[in-house]
Amino acid sequence: MACKKGSPSISANSDIGGNVFDVLFREHAAIMLLIEPDTGEILDANQSALDFYCYSRVEITGKFIHEINVIRSVELADEQKKALSGAKDRFVFQQKIANGEIKTVEMCSSFININEKKSLLSVIHDVTERKKTEEALKQSESHFQLLADHMSDTIWLMDMDLRVTYASPSAMLTRGYSLAELQNISMDRLLLPGSLQKVLKLCAEEIPKIKADKTYSPVTTIELEVRKRDGGIDLMELKLSLIRDEFGVPVSILGQGRNITERKRVEVDLRQSESRYRALFESSLSGILITNPIGAVIAVNPEACRLLGRTELEIYQVGLSKIFDLTDSRFDLAMKERERTGSFCSELTLIRGDGTAFPADVKSRSFTLPSGDEYSNIFFHDVSIQKQVRESLRRRTEELTALQETILELSTPHSLSDLLNLIVERAATLLDSPSGGLYLNEPEHQRVLCVVSYKTKRDYTGTTLDYGVGAAGIVAATGAPLIVEDYRKWDGRARVYEGDQPFQAVMSAPMLWQGRVSGVIHLLREDDHKKFTHAELSLLQMFANHAAAAVENARLLNLLGLELAERKQIENELRESEDRYHTIVSNSPLITFVVDECGVVSLVEGMGLDLLGLKPGQSVGRSVFDFSPEFPGLMVAIKGALGGQGQRNEINVRGAVFDVSLTPIFDDQGTVKKVIGVANDITSLKKTEEIIRRSEEKYRTVAEFTYDWESWRAPDGSYLYVSPSCERITGYTMEEFLNEPGLIYKITHPDDRDLVREHTNRVMGDQHLSNTEFDFRIVTPTGETRWINHSCISVFGADGRWLGRRESNRDVSERVRIAQELQAQRDFATQVINAMGQGLTVTDSQGRFEFVNAAYARLFGYEAEELIGKYPKDVTIPEEWGALENQRKLREDGQTSTYESRIQKADGGMAHVLITAVPRKSDSQNYGGAIAVITDLTEQKRVQDELRKARDAFEMANHQLQQALTREQDLSHTDGLTGVYNRRYFFELAEKWFGISIRHKQPLSALMIDIDHFKQVNDEFGHAVGDEVIRLVIRSTRDELRSEDIVGRYGGEEFVVILPMTNLDQAKILAERVRTLAESLHFPTDKGEARITLSIGAAEMPFDQKLESVEFLIRNADKAMYIAKQDGRNRVRVFTAAVADS
């Protein structure tokens, strides 16, 4: 692109002096760089450039322009070469600044001469934001045009008199009219009378508001019955939006129509079907995933999100590969099974969002849609707990089996002493403890006595502990079991054990008999890593209770023998009475049984015994505790009754449920002598209750967990039910709605209250009114306005009685907001296209114009209509046809480009244009044509030609002047022998660099160079050889210097060099290179070969002193040079404080 106006006024090939350079370059507001054209090295940058690139002058000097430019293509590399060649065009690059940020810039360059050296002055313009804006406008224009021409909805544009000014292709296709016909047809012919009245009423209500308030731009949706050309009638949903001009004056009405005839017909069926599906899907107790043909997840229910610990969006993103453990071999087998049979059912490992794995029961089935695509559903639920329960039950069963065997062993006759030792031994074996003990309670003394000390390090038999002292004393006093993890550190330990530290972990359980603590069983462990668990404590408690019974049985064994004779006499007396009742009880559907105070069954009769697999009299004489493993619940209840408490329980036995009533019978002293029990089989009753409960729970779950706000109104208008979602949507709880039926009117937006009240009165007054739906607004307690989509339907009972209406309310605020934003974007895009000053065209796949905006037609003198159907070639001069064909091929290949061309105007003239063209795709994703933006460059080209001619004339005159000035300066500024600056002119230039360095605080160094033993060279080889030596030394020195470095003859064989932007270390390195190069020079003569060396002093200008002249710097370099001679010549010395003192 050619350089525009506004470039800095520094002429090409001009020679810039020091003062002019400072004004036009360093202090200029534009971003400027001085570049070496052959290498692209950056020689200097002004302050604006340093600020833009975030570099210091030292950092940017010496960089190459290609280190800053971001070159990503061959074309950009070629552009960079053109820019460095001094081409006058403006080039666009992306550049990377110091902080890493990428900037888009335009570069315009010109050659200038500075200090007799040709350099490239580049002016940089930051166009980053402009390029972003241009790209955004292009995308917006393209999107809008494609949207308008390819929308399935019908688009209408009408003036304020309701005349059609534009109709989209879909509008003309569905109505059967052309655009011209639509523009001339009247509304009464297009709309049915009722719909016409709707439109006229809407206009009568809205137009006064529109004219009165320039900020009022309503968006209204109405449903109209529209006639087609063939006489048919469609039901259209039409959304009307107002368009104003830049002054706020209404100019047009935009209508977006959609045929909803078919939608209305199926809407109710679809909604009901969707509601049923959604309720089942959302409230399922199993996680559900649905995958598409490529295996991607397309639907997730809330339970799946909960089980997987991920949001719905996260599940969509990670897919099945992150949900299932693919290393589980069962997964591959399951997938193969589904591929083979269409389904599988397996336990697989799933991965939660936090990375934890869990086992799940997974079922999947494939299903095929009418389109032929195969989808799959996956149902799963976490079986971790079930597996844990099964494992726990297995361990519990093993423990209980061992416990049962132990209890049976204890139930056999033993002496009391043997029994006590056996109890502790079996308890230690059962619970894997190395040692233990048993204490018997002495309630009359409020203490316990150790009677067994099993495998302890010290025998504690005979030790007594008061209630509340030590583990045994506390358990005896409280009757509660106890675990002590470290007895040695426990505050409640007994003094009798102080210092022993014989054990660490202690577990104690009371031996309960008839509600009293008869003793305490101790188990001990010394292993630090094996602690007692509460499960073990529970098992020990069960064992202790049975042990208590065994101990009491042993104690009472002798007493039972004495009482046996007396009991037999009593039994004979009772037998006759029992016989009378036996017939009644044995034929009753109830099970009747009697247990004595020792737990022995004395009677069990009833027809219900068959359910238990028992026969009348089969269990008589046996202890009820013999049945503990088989009837654990019943045993607990009998223990309670034997303790004097009446019992009423529901107990599960072998899959049957019994209602068991236990009544204790007391003697005169208030002691329980027996328990009479009655069991009634209520299995069928419980099954019926469970069916009813599950049914009620299922329907309540569906209602409680639905996302929408659901409610049920009675025929009188009061609420019978409101779902918890009401609080999330409205901010009010379901209790508030139930207690205040009129709350719905209070929270309704004032403008919508009449609408809601009228709807409620109408639907509650007509029970046969079908499903109705409308939108209204509510105001939450925080003042937020929300849009609600309301629908309701009548509810009838099984007997046909009207039960009221079920209502469903959904928060559609986001949908309304998005619709409003989309409308605003469409309005904005329309205004941009109408207002843009550039031409815009759209061509089809054959290259014909489909659309031409007014700006394009106006720029080149055509009417837009006459260009439609033509080819770009028809308005392009023949010389550009080849380039135009190449550009068309680029579009077909999917490429975007910007290029210049020439167009034939309608009046015969020619216009230079800049064209940016992008390809567009058809509905089938093939090449569908192109969209182009055209900018008129005719006037710009004319101005450029005039500027080019003026510049060429100026450059010719400037060149001639430069040649003359160069000749003059060469004579007055240079040394005749060496060609370097003479002493006078050298000091003039040195003072300028001295001023620049002082002003900008930039380093400045000097070198003083002297040829060692030069007088001997003159004396031995002659002055002609001496002059040639001086010239060669100067030439080799200048080869090592930069263009801005200054060399002058100081006198005789001494030379001085000023080094701008150079510190002392850099100056010393340069001096070493100059010295080494001179040492290698050869001067062959008739008298032999002459060899020379150099002594060089280097100094840097100090900023900590107030200096008035560059002579101070040169004197310091001269001092350093004399030190080099004193140190033996042929060396470099730098000026330091030590040199200054000498």
CATH T-level topology of the largest domain: Alpha-Beta Plaits
Poorly predicted regions: 1-18
Number of domains: 8
- Radius of gyration, in Å, reads 53 Å
Large-scale geometry: flat
Number of strands: 44
Helix percent band: 40-55%
Ends apart, CA distance between termini: 64 Å
Overall pLDDT level: 81
Write the layout of secondary structure elements.
Blueprint: E1 14-16, H1 18-26, E2 31-35, E3 42-45, H2 47-53, H3 57-60, H4 65-68, H5 74-84, E4 91-96, E5 102-114, E6 117-126, H6 128-150, E7 154-158, E8 164-167, H7 169-175, H8 179-184, H9 187-190, H10 193-212, E9 219-227, E10 233-244, E11 250-259, H11 261-282, E12 287-291, E13 297-300, H12 302-308, H13 312-318, H14 320-323, H15 329-341, E14 343-351, E15 357-368, E16 374-382, H16 384-411, H17 416-430, E17 435-442, E18 447-454, E19 464-466, H18 470-478, E20 482-484, E21 505-513, E22 516-525, H19 534-586, E23 591-596, E24 601-605, H20 632-642, E25 647-653, E26 656-666, E27 672-681, H21 683-704, E28 709-713, E29 719-722, H22 725-730, H23 734-739, H24 743-747, H25 753-765, E30 772-779, E31 785-796, E32 802-811, H26 813-835, E33 839-843, E34 849-852, H27 854-860, H28 864-867, H29 881-892, E35 897-904, E36 910-921, E37 927-936, H30 938-973, H31 983-1000, E38 1004-1011, H32 1014-1021, H33 1023-1039, E39 1046-1051, E40 1054-1060, H34 1064-1079, E41 1083-1085, E42 1088-1090, E43 1094-1100, H35 1111-1126, E44 1132-1134, H36 1137-1141
Parallel strand pairs: 1-5, 43-44
Antiparallel strand pairs: 2-3, 2-6, 4-5, 5-6, 7-8, 7-11, 9-10, 10-11, 12-13, 12-16, 14-15, 15-16, 17-18, 17-22, 18-19, 20-21, 21-22, 23-24, 23-27, 25-26, 26-27, 28-29, 28-32, 30-31, 31-32, 33-34, 33-37, 35-36, 36-37, 38-40, 38-43, 39-40, 41-42
Helix pairs in contact: 6-26, 16-17, 16-19, 17-19, 32-33
